[in-house]
Amino acid sequence: MLDLQNRMNSKVNVDWMARGNAWYRAAWIECGELMDHYGYKWWKKQTPDLAQVQLEIVDIWHFGMSALFREGVTVETLADEIIVALDGHRVSEAGVLESTEALAEYCLRSKGFSVPLFWDLMAAAELSFDDLYKQYVGKNVLNFFRQDHGYKDGSYIKNWQGLEDNVHLVEILANANVLSPQFADDVYQGLAARYPKA
Known about the structure:
It comes from Zhongshania aquimaris. Pfam families: dUTPase_2 (PF08761). InterPro entries: dUTPase/dCTP_pyrophosphatase (IPR014871). The protein has 198 residues and is mainly alpha-helical. Helix content is 63%, strand content 2%. It is built from 9 helices and 2 strands. Strands 1-2 form a two-stranded antiparallel sheet. A hairpin with a 2-residue loop joins strand 1 (159-160) and strand 2 (163-164). Helix 3 packs across helix 7 (129-148), helix 5 (96-110) packs antiparallel against helix 6 (115-124) and helix 8 (165-174) packs across helix 9. The radius of gyration is 17 Å and the shape is globular.
């Protein structure tokens, strides 16, 4: 996933690590979007949309991984650092909203990203590592699809057939075979088949 994230960031800007982007800011903003999907408004009826909550967690992971990159540090070293950060970590029993707030607070306070707090959020939202991987690869493909269809210049259409592209992705992933050697290609083709033709 780290390698895929590096490739995606490089597609947007080949010199992305030197840019000093505020990845932590994007992560905590995604935390706010997650809360909208989970529901926090006590003054109206809301039903948590766990599939969309989990997709927001995947979005947070994109920005969180990006925040961990440092020039001169290999993907393998970053992966080892993540393993060390989780070694012996006891998962919090906090709920989705509280876990989201803890991660957002860390991002704001440190201007960084906490893998253990992210792991707590995954657990609270019932997102396994295998599901994180499947959804991450799917979202990575969607991000490439967006770039290939005009996201950067503003010509990309985000809503098709009355649904946001993320909702189409959830439907495609539900029927995709993650063990297939062409898993990523299958997801891309599924998106292409649904995307409005020019």
